[in-house]
Design a protein that fits this description.
Blueprint lengths: L1 H8 L37 H15 L11 H14 L2 H5 L1 H9 L7 H8 L12 H12 L2 H4 L1
Helix pairs in contact: 1-2, 2-3
């Protein structure tokens, strides 16, 4: 699974894996480490790459899979932390959409809820019942300068 994650997400220098990498032969790294050249890019992973990596990591650390017991204990915590933190990356990769959704106040309008409550006997409900109206009314009634900005 770890090799699959590596193949899915690696952006190798010259677009080829280093042939002398000990991991490819199933060996441990030398004591002084093994240096891999990776290009510096200002591009995040694609949504597909992110989904695939998260899915593979989840299958690796899931208690039910049994694969977790094959990992060293000091490797499990960083993998779990990466998996937990990477959940939010999709929102960062789609920052404009996330920001738009945060500023969208249309869910504060209770029209659908009210129509469901009246079972169609009323077509609309008074605007004074909507959250935007209540907030605007509160701001105008209190006349606090900081709220009016």
């Amino acid at each position: 699974i770890i090799m699959s994650i590596r193949e899915t997400c690696s952006d190798w220098y010259d677009d080829t894996e280093p042939r002398n990498d000990p991991a490819l032969a199933g060996k441990k790294d030398p004591p002084d480490g093994f240096q891999i050249k990776v290009k510096r890019r200002n591009v995040g992973p694609s949504s597909t790459q992110l989904y695939m990596v998260r899915t593979m990591l989840e299958s690796l650390i899931d208690e039910r899979s049994g694969a977790k017991k094959n990992l060293r204990k000091d490797h499990v915590a960083p993998i779990e932390e990466f998996h937990r933190k990477s959940f939010f990356w999709n929102y960062l990769l789609n920052y404009n959409t996330s920001l738009f959704n945060c500023g969208d106040l249309s869910q504060l309008w209770y029209r659908e809820f009210f129509l469901e409550m009246t079972m169609g006997r009323r077509i609309q409900f008074p605007i004074e019942m909507s959250m935007p109206w209540l907030l605007t009314d509160h701001i105008l009634e209190t006349q606090e300068a900081s709220m009016m900005e």
